[in-house]
C-alpha cells in the first residue's frame, strides 16, 4: 500500500500533461529569456500548439503571462490552452504562433504583400487595443514584444506581464509606431522621433504612422484611428483587408452579398501569402460550403487554394468536400464541378472514386437536363483510369451505349463517341474490340454530321486495338459509304492507316 501511495505522489506530472513538451527551440524571446518551441496535443497529434518555457526558477514573468492570457478573452488575444509547473520550470501552451519578427524573417513576401499583410495585422492589433483600452481598461505596456502571428496569419497580442491600468493610449500607440518602423527598416534601434524615420516606411502608411507617434495632447482613441484607416483612401481600406473581414463576418451577410463576394474572390486571391490563403481563407470556404449557402461560386477559389495543400492535407480537407459536392442536387453546382474536374481528379484515390464519387456521378447520365448529361460524359474521361473492372467495363459501358444510341441531343451523342475514343485504352482487352467497333460504327450512321465525323476520328485513334479480320468485316463496310457523304469533311481515307 505504501509503495502504491509513494508511486502516486512521485509521479512525474509531465507524463499526464495533455501536451508534448519540446526539447528544441525555434526561437528565444531575449527580453525575458523565454524559450519558444513546437508542441501538440498528445491525444490528437494533428492539433498543433506552441510552448513557451523557462528552465530555471526565474519563471515569474511567464506565470504572470499565463494568468493574464487565461482571463483575457478576445479574438486577437493569443489563446491560452494549458500550463504546467514542474521542477522549477514553467511551461505555457498556446495556440500555434510565432513572434512577429521571426514570422517576417521566415516568410517570403514581396513589398506589396508586406504592405497588405501589415495593413491586416495592424487592423487586428488596433482592434485588440480598442478592447483593452475601452473594455478591460488596460494598457499593454509591452507592444514591441507582444505581437505574435498564428498559423493562419492572424496577428495577436500576448506578453501581458507588464500590463496595467490605462492612463493614456499614448504608451501603446507610440510603441506600436516603433513596431511599424522596425518592420520596414529591420532596425530596432531607430527612434520614432528621428527625422529620417518617416522616409523609411511606405507613403500609404504615413498618416497612420503619424497618428501612432502623436504626443499626449494630439493622441486619438484607438477607435478613431481604426475608423480613419478603414475610410476610403485609408491604409486599411483595400481588397486584402476587405476580403478577410468579409469572411469573418460571413454569417451576418445577405445571400446576394455572399454570391457577389465569391464571384470576385477568385480574382482577388493573388496577393495573399500562402499561410493566409491555405490556413485562413480555405478553411472558411470549406466551412461555408458545408454549413452555408455559398452555392457554386465557391468552387473556383476553393479549387485554386486546394493546390497549395500537400497530399495528406488535400485528402483530409478537400476530398470530403468533393465527395459531398458530387452528391449535390443543385444542377449549377454539378455542372461547374464537372467543368473543373481536371483540377482535382488527379488527386483522388481510386477507392474514393469507385465507392463515393462514381455512384453519384453516373446519375448525371440520366438527368433530364442536357447540360448535366453532357458535362458528365466529358468528365468521365478524367476518371476512367481509376474505375474498377465492373464500373468501367460493365456499368459505364451500358450508360454510354444508351447515350450514344438514343440521346435526343446530337452534341451529347457526339461527345459520347469522343469519350469512348479517349477511354478505349482503359477498357479490358477481352471486351475492348467488341465495345469500340460497335460504338463507332453506330456513330458512323448518326444523322448529325459531327457525330459521324467523331466516329471516323475515334476509329482512327483506336485502330491498333482491332484485328484485320474485324476491320475487313465490320469496320470498312460501315466506313466506305462515308466516302460519298454529302458533308465535305468526310474525305477520310488518308487518316486510316
UniProtKB/TrEMBL annotation:
Transmembrane ranges, per UniProt, are none
Which parts of the sequence belong to the Protein kinase domain? 1-345
User: Taxonomically, which superkingdom?
Assistant: Eukaryota
Q: Which PROSITE patterns match?
A: HEAT_REPEAT, PROTEIN_KINASE_DOM
Family, per entry: Belongs to the protein kinase superfamily.
GO MF annotation: an example: ATP binding
InterPro entries reported for this sequence: ARM-like, ARM-type_fold, CIK-Related_Protein, HEAT_type_2, Kinase-like_dom_sf, Prot_kinase_dom
Which residue intervals correspond to the HEAT repeats?
Answer: 357-395
Q: Say what the protein does.
A: Regulates COPI-mediated retrograde protein traffic at the interface between the Golgi apparatus and the endoplasmic reticulum. Involved in the maintenance of the Golgi apparatus morphology.
The name this protein goes by in its record: N-terminal kinase-like protein
Q: Write down the species.
A: Meloidogyne incognita
